[in-house]
Amino acid sequence: MVDMRRRGPEPPWAGPEIEFKPGMAREMLRELAPLLAEEGIHVDEHGELSDVEVPDLDNLQRALDRAVERQNLALFTPTGRARELAATALRQVTEAIADGDTARAAAVLDQIQPESPDYSVATVAGCTGVALGLLDEWLSGRDPNAAHRPRRAHPAAARALDRGRAGTDVLVLALAAKGRAFRSLDTLTVRQGGHHLLYGSALALAAGGLAWARRTRAELAELTATVIR
User: How far apart are CA 222 and CA 193, in angstroms?
Assistant: First the structure.
């Protein structure tokens, strides 16, 4: 079983890997078709732009940028079943970290998938978005009942982290204290990588939840069931 605890630091993220696949552009256009239609740009079932009123390249790029931004916002703001799965995973990670069980926490995080069309498992974007959104609420003062910002992860989590993930965790906590963690998603993803950001977000949320439980002397499982939703 994968354990979050490492004997040495994990190598820094090398940046996004660029891979070109035949038909990738058409596939992307098909995925964005509903959003592009709202911009007045129509894509057929083959991923081709309609010949009717095809925009110039500048307008097309702006429309694509807006469509991608809206799609990403939807991915990082899950609702219904998708949010339930994300919240459940984050609660399990928080409770495992509180118990010092880094292997169990890693096992939960390892089950989170990039995509889940059938809503059977939590997704990376869903968990990251939920965690950052909650941290913004808790630590910026929007939720007056939440604990103040911890300086870093709980000691049990800190021992489990390599340097890269620890740095991501501290960065997320600092941004959330200003209410800017969720708004910084694009920058965080590019600079930290989706994997590190998932770990950092989950660990920062655990730090916030544990600090809240200590301050209020609440049972952690009861607290997380109420506030991580």
Answer: 32
How deeply is 60 buried, as exposed, middle or buried, from its count of CB atoms within 10 A (0-12, 13-18, 19+)?
middle
8 Å CB contact between 168 and 200: yes
The runs of H, that is alpha helices, within 99-193 are 102-111, 124-139, 155-160, 163-177, 185-192
Give pTM, 2 decimals: 0.72
Q: Is 149 exposed, middle or buried (0-12, 13-18, 19+ CB in 10 A)?
A: buried
Quickly count helices (H) and strands (E) in the chain. 10, 0
pLDDT digits (tens, 9 = 90+) for 133-178: 999 999 998 888 886 666 555 555 555 544 445 568 778 888 999 9
Q: How far apart are CA 183 and CA 186, in angstroms?
A: 8
